[in-house]
Amino acid sequence: MNDDIQPDGSDVYDNAHEYEHGALGDAEYAQFMELAAEEGFDIEDVEGAIEAAGHGPLPVLAVVGRPNVGKSTLVNRMIGRREAVVEDRPGVTRDRVTYEAEWAGRRFKVVDTGGWEQDVLGIDASVAAQAEYAIEAADAVVFVVDAKVGATDTDEAVVRLLRKAGKPVVLCANKVDGPSGEADAAYLWNLGLGEPHPVSALHGRGTGDMLDAVLEVLPDAPEQSFGTAIGGPRRVALIGRPNVGKSSLLNKVAGEERVVVNELAGTTRDPVDEIIELGGKTWKFVDTAGIRKRVHLQQGADYYASLRTAAAVEKAEVAVVLIDASESISVQDQRIISMAVEAGRAMVIAFNKWDTLDEERRYYLEREIETELGQVAWAPRVNVSARTGRHMEKLVPAIETALAGWETRVPTGRLNAFLGELVAAHPHPVRGGKQPRILFGTQAGTKPPRFVLFASGFIEAGYRRFIERRLREEFGFEGTPIHISVRVREKRGAKKK
Questions:
Q1: Distance CA 330, CA 321 (A)
Q2: Which family is this protein grouped under (predicted)?
Q3: What is the pTM of this model?
């Protein structure tokens, strides 16, 4: 995965962090910064780029509220661009969408959540499902209420659940387009969540004061160290389409019937955590609900099952994606794989029901894998049968391989030697009479591996993919996505804004 210098916060920075802890030493750190200065980079710019990737997971802010109160409009205002789907009717947001935002120099994630399908599950169950997701995912919550309408019974139900959660809540009184509407906002004091912040998400009025309040309750992103594992068993999420055998696989590795298995697709609705001894180690397996189709096309229970599955993937360290080998690889299989990649998780692809395949199907499956899954050729693959237990012994080594790649770190000196040889042998194509060069780089973090490259000009996406391929060839990184960010050197003499 390649992007501009907008790290997602799941990383730690390299040189400055190592310098503080003595791993690089004064001399090597000084040489790195001297190189940056010689190449025309502002030292503060270099340190800022590294520090930007120098945190643990970014704090998460969930924006919740009943349908059509302006949540997506508010999210667009927070992130400074129109990305969340906005339409003047309830329930347009039917996906869990996460964006990066920055306010007053602090970065955080914003989760835009959908409203509730009150006619499907009933108001209590629907509100509980959505609020439960917000609680699971967030460090703090912005609760959006339509100030013109006032607090409804649905809003009151959300308040009760948020109080039980104990998470910090900022109350946003939306649709206050002028001073005359502030009296409506004042009535929301009665919700008991503290001061209602009058906001017009559509026009931007009051959003700055509300974001100031958000920063007061949102925790700072913690620093992390390379390779520092979180305590407890390693967390494995089993994901895939309905009826591909996730529950059967979990039962097989557990050695007993832990999860209900039924030929009817969709038996599992909620993620099920199971502590399992496998391969001489203790693991926490999560059997998730099958993801049927695009989340925003789903209804009722399937919608909430997908939200919980997405939350389970975010909490996991490695995702085992189950694919039914007896059927053609579907667009939905590819979307589920993309979910794990975008979440930055280590990944193993398990082709289930392998025992049912004849030679012809195996031939065509190999062709499908080449064409449909070429973008994740780095993921370890196992061919298993959850029904018979065939090749189950290969699952743990594949998971361990993926986790090792996920935590791999390349020393700065070795990385720059590699980059120097690569650029000399395969320079960037000339575009518009100019030939940008990779000048130097550093690994900004692990879990997944993230690299920050410093360049003399814009580096095309194709060349970034080439660098990623060569990084994999040289250093492995099996079973993990790689993120590459590029910081371009400003023109000499140009003033920084």
A1: 13
A2: Belongs to the TRAFAC class TrmE-Era-EngA-EngB-Septin-like GTPase superfamily. EngA (Der) GTPase family.
A3: 0.70
